[in-house]
TrEMBL record:
Residues 13-195 form the Metallo-beta-lactamase domain. It comes from Rhodocytophaga aerolata. Keywords: Hydrolase, Metal-binding, Zinc. This is MBL fold metallo-hydrolase. InterPro entries: MBL_Glyoxalase_II, Metallo-B-lactamas, RibonucZ/Hydroxyglut_hydro. Its cofactor is Zn(2+). The keyword Acetylation does not apply. Pfam families: Lactamase_B (PF00753).
Length: 212
């Protein structure tokens, strides 16, 4: 059974997730840790729980979700996996990081690309990759059918959806992604978003003003 640990990092209040199972293997998704104390919080948790980091995953590559990529790669000697369509988004971060107040941002590039239908395997567990563009051109989500949860990045929020006014964003594409990729997962599936608290597909179908 997968356990999910959430950290909220950086001024964007971004959710970083560590997923691990009984084997103690884990994956880190969207490390937003930038300040020294944030990096320490992440490493303390991994060390205290005796976890072995197997992969670094990005749902998408906006700055708030990738600030800790280089730190995680170097600290745990792991590869970075993203969708290929988001590689230009990741490469662009270096050009604007300072203007957002992240002068010490350390760029890094992906090692592998994920596509819809791929599975990320760690320990006794696996996550299915869903392609859900709209907020970012190469946005993906990680779905665990057996335990009815989805690490959704900035696609669907409690009462809201991801913004679509950034380069590569498209409102209609995002709505289509939600309706055709997330809604069919089932009303009882919990979505762990890139910002804010978890929600369920059923609640958002019924109450989300962008989707009702």
């Amino acid at each position: 059974m997968i356990q999910i640990q959430t950290f909220t990092f950086n001024p964007f209040q971004e959710n970083t997730y560590v997923l691990f199972d009984e084997t103690r293997e884990c994956v880190i998704i969207d490390p937003g840790c930038y300040e020294k104390q944030e990096k320490q919080e992440l490493t303390d948790f991994i060390q205290s729980n005796q976890l072995h980091v197997k992969y670094l995953l990005n749902t998408h590559c906006h700055i708030d979700h990738v600030l800790g990529n280089a730190f995680v790669k170097h600290t745990y000697k792991v590869d970075l996996y993203i969708h290929q369509a988001d590689e230009p988004v990741l490469r662009a971060v270096e050009s604007y990081a300072s203007s957002y107040g992240f002068a010490q941002y350390e760029p890094t590039l992906p090692d592998h690309f994920l596509e819809e239908g791929d599975r990320v395997k760690f320990g006794n567990s696996s996550l299915a990759v869903l392609f859900v563009p709209g907020h970012a051109p190469g946005h993906i989500a990680f779905y665990r059918a057996e335990e009815k949860f989805c690490i959704g990045g900035d696609v669907l929020f409690q009462g809201s959806i991801g913004r679509t006014d950034l380069p590569g964003g498209n409102f209609h594409t995002l709505i289509k992604s939600i309706q055709t990729k997330l809604f069919p997962l089932g009303d009882d599936v919990t979505v762990y978003p890139g910002h804010g608290d978890p929600t369920t597909i059923g609640v958002e179908k019924k109450y989300n003003p962008f989707l009702t």
